[in-house]
Amino acid sequence: MWLMNTMIKKQKRGIIRPSELQDWLTAHGLTTVTTEECGHLLGVPAIEVSQRLVRLRAKGQLVSAARGLWIAVPPEYREMGAPEPIRYINNLMGFYECEYCVGWLSAASIHGASHQAPQVFQVAVNKSLRKRNIGRSQLQFFYRSYVPLISKKRISLSSGSAVVSTPGATMLMAAADPIYCAGINNAATIICELAENHSNFMKDVLKDLSLFPKASVQRLGWILDHLAGVPDLDTLAERCLKSSEPAVLSPGGGRTGIIDKKWNVIENRRIETDLYGTDTLEDNLKIIADALGENGSSREVIRRR
To answer: Residue 283: what pLDDT?
Structure first.
């Protein structure tokens, strides 16, 4: 059950006028406010709040996030219609009493592994929620039973915090659902960048792999091995060998192609990443070696990048 913000509760009822609401919320570091809290601050019954906020909404100072929850829109966010979703997602999920973690492209971007800003804000949740547009941002919610257990971290923001999947967990999410990452090529690019920028990712991969289908783990292992050039993958490979069913590299594609016996993966299509633009580690090594004119040093170069 959503409880009234302690700071608002301590305020004298009717302390502000409707025209002052957005400025007051922003000045006190509050991104969201419920209808009940608005009624307390304005000194009116909750049933009258929506009517009292008509002018603020028309001016773009306040926007509805859900029935009964409002987002304050400071001047710097007026053009976008609302602050970035990361600034209010924790309150929105709290309002719905829903466990969550920001994932896929949105988490990758937060971890510095996305070439372009995601067009949608993606959230894994433990209950069914419909997607919505808030300002110019589109929020997509995907039910995943692993949400309570997956490795995640709480990041601090200027006003509040948000829960985000860790780099290792984000890799597994990308490998499991390439479609949510704009396809397998982009998913592979994200995985390679996360591996390069976060050296301790493997502990979370090994911790969380049992939460995901075996095919996701096999696909992730193949990408880390053949594209990212990550060493010491024996423990992950051993887990993949326990799967009797070969996984396809690209979900939705056919089941024809060479089988990589180490990862038990059917290479059913070429994978091209923005990092190298080729489909296998061997191709990457050859291109770098040709550029250097030194076949013997190419493997070292790709691992150092």
So the answer is: 47
